[in-house]
Specification:
The structure is a single chain. By secondary structure, the chain is mostly helical. It has one domain: Globin-like. Helix 5 packs antiparallel against helix 6. The longest helix is centred in the N-terminal third of the chain and has 18 residues. It is globular. It starts with 7 loop residues before the first helix and ends in a 15-residue tail after the last helix. Bound molecules: protoporphyrin IX containing FE.
């Protein structure tokens, strides 16, 4: 704490930056034909709100994540490691819009990436 008084949440620009990030991120995800079908019946307003809380909490911001546990939300949907990689690639591309140092980009990317295993089904191999 004392060695680093500013959280990653502060350094990336707080709620405003993260809300912008979430918007841009899902714009990209919904244009990806491999990912878009997962979101067809999902109320996106609510999802953006939950993701804002989740990202903020993951970056040590003040928000309390009020959504469901990440594994419960995703397991059983048949999400493959390949789809997770695409999702994370969109995240990386979006983060690069923010004015961050390389160090902050990779820190933020890996914080979110930590949850990758809770999202995919099976051994991580693609299944049809
Ligand atoms: C590290 C990766 C990921 C994280 C941290 C993450 C995080 C989240 C969060 C916080 C929610 C909101 C939960 C709630 O409303 O209670 C959510 C919902 C959702 N995510 Fe992810 N997600 C990840 C990867 C993915 C991938 C790869 C896909 C599909 C390709 C996906 C599809 C969905 C869908 C469809 C929902 C809405 C589920 C529903 O409302 O029933 N997610 N995710």
């Amino acid at each position: 704490m004392s060695s680093n008084p500013r959280t990653l949440y502060d350094r990336v620009g707080g709620d405003i930056a993260i809300a912008m990030l979430v918007d841009r991120f899902y714009d990209r995800v919904l244009k990806d034909t491999e990912l878009e079908p997962y979101f067809r019946h999902v109320p996106m307003e609510k999802l953006r709100e939950m993701q804002l809380e989740f990202f903020s909490a993951a970056l040590d911001g003040p928000a309390h994540y009020s959504g469901r546990p990440i594994d419960q939300v995703h397991k059983g949907k048949g999400i493959t490691s390949r789809q997770l990689t695409r999702f994370m690639t969109h995240l990386l591309a979006t983060i690069q819009f923010l004015k961050l140092t390389e160090q902050e980009v990779s820190e933020m990317y890996s914080r979110i990436g930590l949850f990758g295993d809770s999202v995919i089904d099976g051994s991580g191999e693609d299944s049809e």
